[in-house]
Amino acid sequence: MRIVEVILAPILALLIGMFFLGLARKIMARIHWRYGPPITQPVIDVIRLFSQKSVSHGNMFTLGVLFSLACSLVLILFLPMGKICPLSSSGGMLVILYVMLLAPFGIALSGGEAANPNASIGISRKLTLALGYEVPLLVILLAVMTHYKTLSIVNIVSMQQNTSWALTSLPLFLSGIAYILILPAILGIRPFEITQAAQEISSGPMVEYGGSFLALATIQHGLNLFIGIALFVNLFLGGAGNPPIFFLKMLVVFVLGLFINAALPRLRIEQAMRYLWRWPTLIAFIGMIIVLIIRR
Amino acid sequence: MDRNQIIKWLKAPAKMGHKYSLHAIYFCTGCGIIEVPPVITARWDAERFGVIPVATPRQANLFLITGYVSVKTLKAIIRTYEQMPSPKFTVGFGSCPINGGMYWDSYNTIKRLDKYIPIDGWIAGCMPRPEAIFVAVTHLWTLIDKDMADGYKRYRSNYHLYRANQEQLFGELEWPPLFPLEDQVEQIA
Amino acid sequence: MNRSLKEKLEATFSDIKVAAPEDDRMVITTRKDAVLSVLNFLKTGGYQHLGLVSCVDWIEDNEFELVYILSAYLQDNYEYSIKEKTNIILKTRISRENPQFMTIIPVFANAEPYERELHELFGIHFEGHPRQIPLLLERDYSIPPFRKDFDTREYVKEVFDNIPVVEEKKK
Amino acid sequence: MSLELLLIVAFGGALLSYLFGKICPQIRDPFAVISSVALAVMMAFLYGKTMESPFYFGFLGLPLILRTNMLAWFFAMAISILGALSVIFSWDYVKDRERTDFYYLMLLLANASMLGIVFAGDFVSFFVFWEIMSWSTFLLISYNRGRALGAGMKYIIMSIVGSVSMLIGMLSLYAIYGTLHIATLSKLVPSASSGYLLFLFILFGIAFAIKNALMPLHTWLPDAYAESPTSFNGVLSGMLTRMGMYGFLLIIYVIVGAARALNLGPGIFKFNYILAWLGAITIVVSTFIALLQNDAKQLLGWSAIGQGGYMILGIAFGTSLGLAGGIFHTLNHAVYIVLLFMSVGAVQYRTGGQRDLDSLGGLIKRMPVSFIGALLGISGLIGIPLTNGFVSKWLIYKTLILEGHPFLAFAALIGTWGCILYCYKFVHHIFLGQLPEKYKMVARAPFSMQLPMIILSLVILLFGILPGIPLKVINTIGTSFGFQSLNVTTWGIASETGTLNTINIFAAVVAACVIVWLIFKAGPKAVPVAQEDTYAAGAAIPKDRYHYTVDFYNPLYRMISPYFKDFIGGFCIKLAGWTQNVCHGIRQMYTGYIGHYVMYIVLFLALLIFVQLKWSLW
Questions:
Q1: How many separate helices (H) and strands (E) can be counted in chain C?
Q2: In this predicted complex, what is the ipTM?
Q3: What is the pLDDT confidence band of residue B172, given thresholds at 50, 70 and 90?
Q4: pLDDT, tens only, A13-25
Q5: Per-residue CA distances from B28 to B110, C114, C138, D124 (Å)
Q6: Strand pairing class (B23-27; B62-66)
Q7: How far apart are CA B9 and CA D347, in angstroms?
């Protein structure tokens, strides 16, 4: 049974990730009053990119991209999707936290090897932004873990099944709000799309990615969208009994994120940091204090 | 997405992929760049054909040269063309890249662009309108279907001729030749 | 009024012709070696802004004519205030065989690119100019292209036309 | 295999290598390597034995005793192996430098004295070996003259302060209990009053906090690391700074025993709370200061201070899990900080002593082995799964969260994310990006430098994938302190409140990598291309000016630099300046005229008479 789950989970995540990318472009087009590409456009892009003969700047350039996609796939095994959660018992929340940083680290190493200052600027922005949204995110995760007194995400989901959703329960309400405030930063979409700004630093770390590298990077971007939203749904919207409900909840959260994405211009890295370290962090700390008070 | 479309996809996914996802990098050389923003925004949406502007030549497979090409810009155009991954197509906008157009007797503009880099498609007109650009894109589809859009293959096989022309115009070039020059010579001889 | 500037100029400089054809433009023609002093005089007199340095090729009487266009910023503490806003066009003639002239960067620092362009396109050498390197053109030309005796059509025929078209060879 | 033989080999090896250096220099290097490797091998035979034997009686009637138990063996094993690797590394590093005999003598003496500290059975020999370690390190830090003298002076002053406070602690112990034998003390001391225990903790705590660079007492470390020769940096940062940790373990868990130590002091201001909060502050502040450094070894120095905070957090809460995490992190940190200093040393050796991060770049093309070492080193430092750093950090975080200290856990986690930023800056500035012209012909690191790097990289991966091996040993240490043992499987900890299973993670990562590699192989092969052929909007790449390193995290610098300056360093400098002025003022008194001195005496007598008349004190 577990073997089926281990194979099924990444494929499902890939499909959902690609669907989300296609949906994002379609909704953005419709908001711009244009017709927009078919939903399957990212799949067409990936097929076309795989047929192109690209350029490599050395072994680390190649291995970095492979390593980051592999780590995104591994992370999906730890995230429960409805009942499918193959590797939940071998590490819990902390492993998720640490594997989540591997994907940007892999891209950072391969981008650095690309010997291009656009890539280096993009990576320095990506890591600074990561530090920016990690401060509130860590406080939120710690609040959830101390509230449910467990380290494993499956227990958190099962506890939310019988009691109410974490987002609506009194102690974790503020943490949920803080998570929503930093969701665009975690997903890397418009207001915080600083790392892959096509106009300013010609798409940041991906400046030298050609055919198959760009294909792997787009797949990895799709998986990132999936991971960011799946984490939120599992922690605050009580996961789901079966995958379809889980997918519906993710869809709602993603469309909400898209509307924010379509409306806001891209922030500068200083503005993003000042925002991230002010409001979401404040709300997250208040949430943590409430959790501690209730725990006493 | 009728039946023969699916069969086409299964028979030649790479070719279909190239047809429906043309990531364009446009070189804002001459006056044609004014035509590109309306093409990619709401009025004439190029994204429904899968044409998206991208930031770097590494990520592109369609190279739009919009307008006249001055001698100094040709260096940048050659370098950008050589940095694109291999199945790539180029489209020349307007009459200036075709035969020098209005600047036919100017000392500083390139008269026929396809002496230096292979061009797959031309769009006539002294700055063609966006509809003409979409006609060009659909025409490019048919070329790709019939395997006639083989600019990159011609560049590969005749590279020593292209390189000779470039060196004749610029004298010694700063960047090394893209493909080794010797094997072409004895291939022909 | 600009007539007062006209009298002052004629008073201070020896052979200087100051013609004021229209109201807002005053044409001054001086000798080659008086240019720097006139420019200094005008600069202290309120004409801080050097608009352009260009050159006219009088091929018949075998001379280049350097043209300096100056305009006054509109502060009111100078005599020539906004009512009589006059642009000054200063002209000098230099010989065409060996086009030599001294640079005016000490007076107007922003003349550096203009003089570089004149050097490249007309072949005028400015002593004292820090870097007279090519600015706009990629190739080097036997006759500087802006001169009247440069025949563009013949140059195009000679350079661009005899680069072979790649396709004919293959067929 | 008695302990005296071990110490004789250690100290004898040092002296003999010095003599060999004088007689015929070629034998000295191989002899030093053989003696340290032999030491490591003999140490391995000591596993599991606990014995105690006095080796010298004549010291004021106090027996000097050598004893070994699991804790001592664990630290001794780490010291000897890292010492051997550092000696192999410095074979090529100091080959063509002057005073190399002096260097080898001091290096081997430092290693031998650390072994002595670990095996010391009573406080007198502990103190004697501690002093030998301190001044041999001082001589080595100030080895390359110049600025190093200042750094060495700062180090020796602070370690003397530490030794003196430790000495006072020992004297008080001797005064009350009449003996300095650790085994008997560990039976007598727990029954002492809590006030006396706090007094002991503070005295010994100062000595060990200085050595372990806890926040307010850390100012010596960055300069000492930056100025000392890089080959010695491995020993200095690996185990020498962690003797402070050994000291804390000795005091808290061996002498006083966990029961009494952990609830010392009223409510919130318990001793271990304050220690934990000092550790947390150390992590956060030093990590952000490390971000601002532009010198490779300063950056590693500040990161070493930060990692010291993790170890303190581990042992501060006396749960068996936390203790295991703290001790395991001491070993892991020793492994990857030595590896990072070796890669910096290899780069310095090849680029003529260059360690400024802004003028290096692109060395991955010329020195791949050093790059792999540095990459694995920083992945251990960050705690990436499948490296040893992750397991120990997982243990520490688990204790912090389940003990209900979320803010401490938050400080530790933020330390990790800051660590990612400066680790990437370290690797990017040295190995990635454009290779400057003058380093185009740099050769690879010599084999004697590559060998230790490869060994340590394998150790990082081995302990990361199979953490059971070291955890079993640490578990026996825990049980020797009286904690209930964790059930340790070969690939992690199995417990009901959350298990760690690194084999599953390893299998998942390998499977995912294979799948992604196959997908990548399906596409056409990528064309390797030179560093000049990169995107620059069609323009030519300017030589040596297309590499982004200066002000790497510029927006972050502007936000954190006002808050994270080195206040304590600044305070010490102000204090020094202030004392200098006061002393200068007092010096004015001695003017050299006899008349002034006579006047001072008369005035003083008048003052005495006045006081006597007014208050008639006598």
A1: 5, 7
A2: 0.88
A3: confident
A4: 999 999 999 999 9
A5: 15, 26, 19, 80
A6: parallel
A7: 53
Phi, psi for C14 (deg, rounded to 5): -75, -90
Inside any domain, residue D510: yes
Taking contacts as CB-CB distances below 8 angstroms, the residues of chain A near B87 are 51-53
Q: What is the pLDDT of residue B148?
A: 87
pLDDT higher than threshold 60 for residue C26: yes
d(CA B120, CA B151): 6
Do the chains contact at D540 and B77, CB–CB below 8 Å? no
Residues D470 and D600 in one domain: no
CA distances from A131 to A274, B167, D277, D557 (A): 12, 50, 22, 13
- Write down the pTM of the prediction: 0.90
| Dihedral over Cα of D259, D265, D271, D274: its sign | positive
> Could you tell me if residue D35 is inside a domain?
no
Instruction: Residue window 144-163, chain C: list those with CB within 8 Å of chain B.
Output: 145, 150, 152-153, 155-156, 159-161, 163
pLDDT tens string C49-67: 899 999 999 989 889 999 9
DSSP H or E stretch at residue A55: strand A55-56
Q: Are residues D352 and D487 in the same domain?
A: yes
Joined together, the tokens standing for residue D381 give 């430092």
Contact assignment for D516 to A66 by CB distance below 8 Å: yes
In one letter, which amino acid is D35?
S
Q: Which chains touch B (3 or more CB pairs under 8 A)?
A: A, C, D
For residue B179, the SS3 value is coil
Residue D445 lies in a domain: yes
Looking at the DSSP assignment, which residues form a beta bridge with residue D489?
D492
Contact criterion met (CB < 8 Å) for B77 and D535: no
Which chain A residue is nearest to residue D402, measuring alpha carbons?
A149
pLDDT at B1: 61
Chain A nearest-CA residue for B55: A202
B48–A34 C-beta distance less than 8 A: yes
Domains of chain D: total: 2
Residues of B in contact with C167 (CB under 8 A): 114
C-alpha B81/C-alpha A134 separation (Å) is 41
10-residue averages of pLDDT along chain A (296 residues): 82 92 92 89 92 88 92 88 73 83 89 89 92 92 88 84 80 89 89 86 87 91 92 86 87 91 89 92 93 85
Three-class DSSP labels, D427-475 = HHHHHCCCCCHHHCCCCCCCHHHHHHHHHHHHHHHHHHHCCHHHHHHHH
Rounded CA gap, C163 and D2, in Å? 90
Residue D280 is assigned to a structural domain of this protein: yes
Measured between beta carbons, which residues in chain A are less than 8 angstroms from residue B85?
A: 52-55, 210-211
Q: Which residue has the higher pLDDT, B34 or C23?
A: B34
Give every residue of chain D whose pLDDT is below 70, as ranges: 1, 267, 496-497
- In this complex, do A37 and B50 lie within 8 Å of one another by their Cβ atoms? yes
Whether the per-residue pLDDT at B189 is higher than 50: the answer is no
pLDDT at C105 over 50: yes
Q: What CA–CA distance (Å, rounded) separates D100 from C108?
A: 64
pLDDT digits (tens, 9 = 90+) for A65-83: 999 999 999 888 888 887 7
Phi, psi of C104 (to 5 degrees): -105, 20
- Domains contained in chain B, CATH given: 3-149 (3.40.50.12280)
- Report d(CA D261, CA D257) in Å as an integer: 6
From the list A71, A105, A138, the residue facing D420 with the nearest CB is A105
Question: Cβ D432–A109 below 8 Å, yes or no?
Answer: yes
Tokens of C49: 């802004």
For testing contact with chain A, the best of B21, B61, B83 (most A CBs within 10 A)? B21
- For residue D483, what are the domain limits? 265-517+544-552
pLDDT at B183: 56
Q: How far apart are CA C53 and CA A112, in angstroms?
A: 47
